[in-house]
Amino acid sequence: MKKIVLAAIVVFLIASVNVTKAQNQERIGVHDPVMIQENDTWYLFCTGMGISAFSSPDLINWTQLDPVFAEAPAWVAEEIPTFRGNHIWAPDIYYHDGLYYLNYSCSAFGRNTSCIGVATNKTLDPNDPDFEWVDHGKLIKSDPGVTDWNAIDGNFLIDAEGTPWLTFGSFWSGMQQIKLKPNLLELDGDRSDCKLIASRRTKEEMEKNSEEGPSANAGSSSIEAPFLWQEGDFYYLFVSWDRCCAGAQSTYKVAIGRSENPDGPFVDMDGKPMLYGGGTVILEGDETDWYAQGHNGVARDEGTGQVYLVTHAYDRHSERAASKLRIIELNWNDEGWPEVGEEVR
Description:
The chain is mainly beta. Helix content is 12%, strand content 40%. The protein contains three helices and 21 strands. The strands form five sheets. Strands 3-6-7-8-9 form a five-stranded antiparallel β-sheet. It has a four-stranded antiparallel β-sheet with strand order 1-2-4-5, with no helix packed on it. The protein has a four-stranded antiparallel β-sheet with strand order 10-11-12-13, with no helix packed on it.
């Protein structure tokens, strides 16, 4: 009898561990996630030591992989002398012409001494003999008192005409955009060609700031993490507003605008230009589960066609309001605007 009871307890404990493990996999801790599908596997990248990486067969059970970089690329310390360790921010993953392009951000926190770099790989499968991350160094840099923008939170998109774009930015004047050369590794011009496409400021505030010259401080333009996505005849610009990374005090939210052109002008659902503070909020915190949520990516299931919004959210039910992964269906209404659907569970 004791053996039967003991066996039952062991089975119960094993089952409990498996359930806990599954729950942990479903709610992995992330910041700034992006994901992409290769064959039958999903790959997710996010802010972390050397850029954190995960894989999943079903968007629910995630396995942590080795980081992209075992140590920070050597060029980073040269460009950003105050950069320490290997904590790399806000990656973006994009597939084009047989290669996966991963851009990433290195910065001095709270300053716009920042760079966006690029690495490429033929495959995202670590078991594939062709798997190897090749770093191509700096793509663009911002400097205090020189640029009125911050070179982090990069996003790649090749438009319907085949023109590649880098959209990026965090605080300062707002979201910037610049054309790239076809190899996605070089600017098509120089950094002075950057174009402002979204901000939190009025036209009058922007004119005043322009007269005062570039600032070394973040300022009041609490907008970051642009993600440009083409769906049908429109280009949709996703951005994150307000405060991240503050646990229960976070106020992060996702706002959206759209344009028929990849470089705007982008307007929200009320027709207000995103250049002058416009944006329609489609995702934010609630009173039951999440204090705040933001810094989204968008990805499509190539088999089903379903589009997903992937984001990090500050959990009301965890200790210290930990930042957790959320993957949510994204659908388009009859007017062609995105609507948040069911969460993948």
